[in-house]
Amino acid sequence: MSDDNSVLEKFVSENDCNFDIDNVDFKTKEEILQECRKKFEDHTVSGLHTCLCCLRILTRDNILRKELTSEFFLSQLFKYAFEYNYNLEYSKTSLEALKSLSNIVFKEPCVIGPLKTMGFIKNVLESVDILIETEDNEKLLLCLKLLFLVTALDSASRQELMESNALRMLVRVVNMKRSNITDSNVSAEALKVVYNVLYSTRDEDITKELGDDIQNLVVMLRCILQDPVLDEFTNYALVR
Protein backbone atom coordinates (compact mmCIF):
# COMPACT_ATOMS: atom_id res chain seq x y z
CA MET A 1 0.00 0.00 0.00
CA SER A 2 1.27 3.45 -0.86
CA ASP A 3 2.20 5.66 2.08
CA ASP A 4 0.46 8.58 0.40
CA ASN A 5 -1.83 10.41 2.84
CA SER A 6 -4.59 10.13 0.25
CA VAL A 7 -4.91 6.40 1.00
CA LEU A 8 -5.75 7.12 4.63
CA GLU A 9 -7.96 10.06 3.69
CA LYS A 10 -9.92 7.86 1.30
CA PHE A 11 -10.43 5.25 4.03
CA VAL A 12 -11.74 7.92 6.41
CA SER A 13 -14.05 9.51 3.84
CA GLU A 14 -15.53 6.11 2.98
CA ASN A 15 -15.85 4.75 6.52
CA ASP A 16 -16.15 7.62 8.97
CA CYS A 17 -19.88 6.95 9.30
CA ASN A 18 -19.65 3.23 8.59
CA PHE A 19 -20.45 1.55 11.88
CA ASP A 20 -20.70 -1.89 10.30
CA ILE A 21 -16.96 -1.99 9.66
CA ASP A 22 -17.08 -5.76 9.14
CA ASN A 23 -18.28 -5.11 5.59
CA VAL A 24 -14.86 -3.66 4.72
CA ASP A 25 -12.28 -6.10 3.37
CA PHE A 26 -10.16 -7.26 6.31
CA LYS A 27 -6.91 -7.06 4.34
CA THR A 28 -7.65 -3.41 3.56
CA LYS A 29 -8.16 -2.67 7.24
CA GLU A 30 -4.93 -4.47 8.14
CA GLU A 31 -3.04 -2.41 5.57
CA ILE A 32 -4.51 0.79 6.97
CA LEU A 33 -3.39 -0.23 10.45
CA GLN A 34 0.13 -0.95 9.21
CA GLU A 35 0.23 2.36 7.36
CA CYS A 36 -0.67 4.14 10.60
CA ARG A 37 1.99 2.18 12.48
CA LYS A 38 4.57 3.28 9.92
CA LYS A 39 3.59 6.92 10.38
CA PHE A 40 4.03 6.62 14.14
CA GLU A 41 7.37 4.85 13.80
CA ASP A 42 8.62 7.49 11.34
CA HIS A 43 7.34 10.29 13.61
CA THR A 44 5.49 11.71 10.62
CA VAL A 45 3.53 14.85 11.45
CA SER A 46 1.87 15.16 8.06
CA GLY A 47 -1.44 13.31 8.03
CA LEU A 48 -1.30 12.53 11.76
CA HIS A 49 -4.89 13.63 12.33
CA THR A 50 -6.10 11.44 9.47
CA CYS A 51 -4.10 8.52 10.86
CA LEU A 52 -5.80 8.89 14.25
CA CYS A 53 -9.19 9.09 12.54
CA CYS A 54 -8.36 5.74 10.92
CA LEU A 55 -7.56 4.22 14.31
CA ARG A 56 -10.86 5.48 15.72
CA ILE A 57 -12.68 3.76 12.84
CA LEU A 58 -10.67 0.57 13.34
CA THR A 59 -11.72 0.40 17.01
CA ARG A 60 -15.10 -0.73 15.63
CA ASP A 61 -13.49 -3.94 14.37
CA ASN A 62 -13.44 -6.63 17.06
CA ILE A 63 -10.21 -8.21 15.78
CA LEU A 64 -8.17 -5.12 14.97
CA ARG A 65 -9.26 -3.41 18.17
CA LYS A 66 -7.27 -6.06 20.02
CA GLU A 67 -4.24 -5.07 17.93
CA LEU A 68 -4.75 -1.55 19.23
CA THR A 69 -4.40 -2.80 22.81
CA SER A 70 -0.71 -3.52 22.17
CA GLU A 71 1.84 -1.45 24.07
CA PHE A 72 2.90 0.28 20.86
CA PHE A 73 -0.51 1.61 19.85
CA LEU A 74 -1.63 2.34 23.41
CA SER A 75 1.50 4.41 24.02
CA GLN A 76 0.94 6.37 20.80
CA LEU A 77 -2.71 7.07 21.61
CA PHE A 78 -1.76 8.01 25.16
CA LYS A 79 0.92 10.39 23.89
CA TYR A 80 -1.36 12.26 21.51
CA ALA A 81 -4.42 12.23 23.77
CA PHE A 82 -2.66 14.22 26.45
CA GLU A 83 -0.37 16.36 24.33
CA TYR A 84 -1.27 20.01 24.73
CA ASN A 85 -0.73 22.54 22.02
CA TYR A 86 -3.08 25.39 21.24
CA ASN A 87 -2.54 24.84 17.53
CA LEU A 88 -5.89 23.77 16.05
CA GLU A 89 -4.41 20.76 14.26
CA TYR A 90 -2.90 19.41 17.49
CA SER A 91 -6.21 19.94 19.26
CA LYS A 92 -7.95 17.85 16.60
CA THR A 93 -5.40 15.04 16.89
CA SER A 94 -5.77 15.02 20.67
CA LEU A 95 -9.54 14.74 20.31
CA GLU A 96 -9.25 11.76 17.95
CA ALA A 97 -6.80 9.99 20.26
CA LEU A 98 -9.17 10.46 23.21
CA LYS A 99 -12.04 9.00 21.19
CA SER A 100 -10.00 5.92 20.31
CA LEU A 101 -8.92 5.44 23.93
CA SER A 102 -12.55 5.70 25.06
CA ASN A 103 -13.64 3.03 22.61
CA ILE A 104 -10.77 0.72 23.52
CA VAL A 105 -11.23 1.05 27.29
CA PHE A 106 -14.98 0.48 26.88
CA LYS A 107 -14.57 -2.74 24.89
CA GLU A 108 -11.17 -3.94 26.16
CA PRO A 109 -10.94 -3.13 29.89
CA CYS A 110 -7.74 -5.19 30.09
CA VAL A 111 -5.92 -2.04 28.91
CA ILE A 112 -6.70 -0.16 32.13
CA GLY A 113 -3.70 -1.66 33.94
CA PRO A 114 -1.15 -0.79 31.22
CA LEU A 115 -2.62 2.69 30.82
CA LYS A 116 -2.39 3.34 34.55
CA THR A 117 1.26 2.30 34.42
CA MET A 118 1.76 5.07 31.85
CA GLY A 119 0.25 7.60 34.27
CA PHE A 120 -3.27 7.55 32.89
CA ILE A 121 -5.15 8.76 36.00
CA LYS A 122 -2.69 11.59 36.63
CA ASN A 123 -2.83 12.75 33.01
CA VAL A 124 -6.62 12.63 32.78
CA LEU A 125 -7.01 14.63 36.00
CA GLU A 126 -4.45 17.20 34.84
CA SER A 127 -6.30 17.44 31.53
CA VAL A 128 -9.64 17.98 33.28
CA ASP A 129 -8.09 20.77 35.35
CA ILE A 130 -6.73 22.48 32.21
CA LEU A 131 -9.92 21.97 30.20
CA ILE A 132 -12.09 23.52 32.91
CA GLU A 133 -10.07 26.72 32.50
CA THR A 134 -9.95 26.65 28.69
CA GLU A 135 -13.65 25.71 28.44
CA ASP A 136 -12.90 23.05 25.83
CA ASN A 137 -16.02 21.10 26.73
CA GLU A 138 -15.87 18.63 23.86
CA LYS A 139 -12.50 17.35 25.04
CA LEU A 140 -13.52 17.69 28.70
CA LEU A 141 -16.51 15.43 28.07
CA LEU A 142 -14.26 12.73 26.61
CA CYS A 143 -11.88 12.91 29.58
CA LEU A 144 -14.81 12.56 31.97
CA LYS A 145 -16.16 9.60 29.98
CA LEU A 146 -12.76 7.95 30.39
CA LEU A 147 -12.85 8.58 34.14
CA PHE A 148 -16.38 7.17 34.30
CA LEU A 149 -15.33 4.00 32.50
CA VAL A 150 -12.19 3.47 34.55
CA THR A 151 -13.95 4.05 37.88
CA ALA A 152 -16.76 1.72 36.81
CA LEU A 153 -14.40 -1.07 35.76
CA ASP A 154 -11.50 -0.76 38.21
CA SER A 155 -11.93 -0.50 41.98
CA ALA A 156 -8.31 0.58 42.48
CA SER A 157 -8.97 3.61 40.28
CA ARG A 158 -11.92 4.59 42.46
CA GLN A 159 -9.66 4.50 45.49
CA GLU A 160 -7.00 6.49 43.67
CA LEU A 161 -9.47 9.25 42.86
CA MET A 162 -10.81 9.17 46.40
CA GLU A 163 -7.33 9.80 47.78
CA SER A 164 -6.61 12.62 45.35
CA ASN A 165 -8.22 16.03 44.99
CA ALA A 166 -10.36 14.69 42.14
CA LEU A 167 -13.73 14.91 43.88
CA ARG A 168 -13.43 18.63 44.56
CA MET A 169 -12.37 19.19 40.96
CA LEU A 170 -15.36 17.19 39.73
CA VAL A 171 -17.65 19.32 41.87
CA ARG A 172 -16.21 22.35 40.05
CA VAL A 173 -17.20 20.71 36.77
CA VAL A 174 -20.73 20.07 38.00
CA ASN A 175 -21.00 23.70 39.06
CA MET A 176 -19.97 25.01 35.65
CA LYS A 177 -22.52 27.21 33.91
CA ARG A 178 -24.59 25.22 31.43
CA SER A 179 -25.89 26.90 28.30
CA ASN A 180 -26.20 23.99 25.86
CA ILE A 181 -26.50 20.22 25.65
CA THR A 182 -22.72 19.68 25.68
CA ASP A 183 -22.37 21.64 28.93
CA SER A 184 -25.17 19.61 30.51
CA ASN A 185 -23.62 16.34 29.36
CA VAL A 186 -20.33 17.43 30.92
CA SER A 187 -22.07 18.03 34.26
CA ALA A 188 -23.90 14.72 34.01
CA GLU A 189 -20.69 12.82 33.23
CA ALA A 190 -18.92 14.42 36.19
CA LEU A 191 -21.77 13.35 38.47
CA LYS A 192 -21.49 9.79 37.17
CA VAL A 193 -17.80 9.73 38.08
CA VAL A 194 -18.53 11.11 41.56
CA TYR A 195 -21.19 8.45 42.04
CA ASN A 196 -18.76 5.68 41.06
CA VAL A 197 -16.09 6.98 43.43
CA LEU A 198 -18.39 7.48 46.43
CA TYR A 199 -20.58 4.42 45.90
CA SER A 200 -18.22 1.91 47.45
CA THR A 201 -16.52 4.10 50.06
CA ARG A 202 -17.05 3.63 53.75
CA ASP A 203 -14.50 6.24 54.75
CA GLU A 204 -16.53 8.51 57.02
CA ASP A 205 -13.72 11.06 57.30
CA ILE A 206 -13.80 11.67 53.56
CA THR A 207 -17.58 11.86 53.33
CA LYS A 208 -17.67 14.27 56.29
CA GLU A 209 -14.96 16.41 54.72
CA LEU A 210 -16.98 16.55 51.51
CA GLY A 211 -20.29 17.02 53.32
CA ASP A 212 -21.08 20.47 51.93
CA ASP A 213 -19.93 19.49 48.47
CA ILE A 214 -22.10 16.37 48.48
CA GLN A 215 -25.09 18.46 49.53
CA ASN A 216 -24.30 20.84 46.68
CA LEU A 217 -24.22 17.88 44.31
CA VAL A 218 -27.75 16.94 45.34
CA VAL A 219 -28.90 20.47 44.52
CA MET A 220 -27.02 20.46 41.23
CA LEU A 221 -28.47 17.07 40.29
CA ARG A 222 -31.96 18.45 40.80
CA CYS A 223 -31.12 21.47 38.62
CA ILE A 224 -29.66 19.31 35.87
CA LEU A 225 -32.67 17.01 35.84
CA GLN A 226 -34.87 20.07 35.38
CA ASP A 227 -32.60 21.58 32.73
CA PRO A 228 -34.63 22.15 29.54
CA VAL A 229 -31.60 21.47 27.32
CA LEU A 230 -31.10 18.00 28.78
CA ASP A 231 -33.98 15.60 28.22
CA GLU A 232 -32.38 12.75 30.12
CA PHE A 233 -29.05 11.35 31.20
CA THR A 234 -27.58 9.32 28.38
CA ASN A 235 -25.80 6.05 29.05
CA TYR A 236 -22.20 5.70 27.97
CA ALA A 237 -21.88 4.63 24.34
CA LEU A 238 -19.06 4.22 21.89
CA VAL A 239 -17.67 7.53 20.71
CA ARG A 240 -18.44 7.08 17.07
Q: What is the fold's blueprint, element by element?
A:
Elements: H1 5-15, H2 26-41, H3 48-58, H4 62-67, H5 71-81, H6 88-107, H7 112-117, H8 120-134, H9 137-153, H10 155-163, H11 166-174, H12 181-199, H13 204-209, H14 211-225
InterPro entries: ARM-like (IPR011989), ARM-type_fold (IPR016024), Gua_nucleotide_exch_fac_Ric8 (IPR019318)
GO molecular function, one term: guanyl-nucleotide exchange factor activity
Protein name: GBD/FH3 domain-containing protein
Describe it for me?
With 240 residues, this protein is mainly α. The protein has two domains: 1-118; 121-239. It is built from 14 helices and no strands. The protein has helices at 5-15, 26-41, 48-58, 62-67, 71-81, 88-107, 112-117, 120-134, 137-153, 155-163, 166-174, 181-199, 204-209, 211-225. The longest helix has 20 residues, at 88-107. The chain is globular.
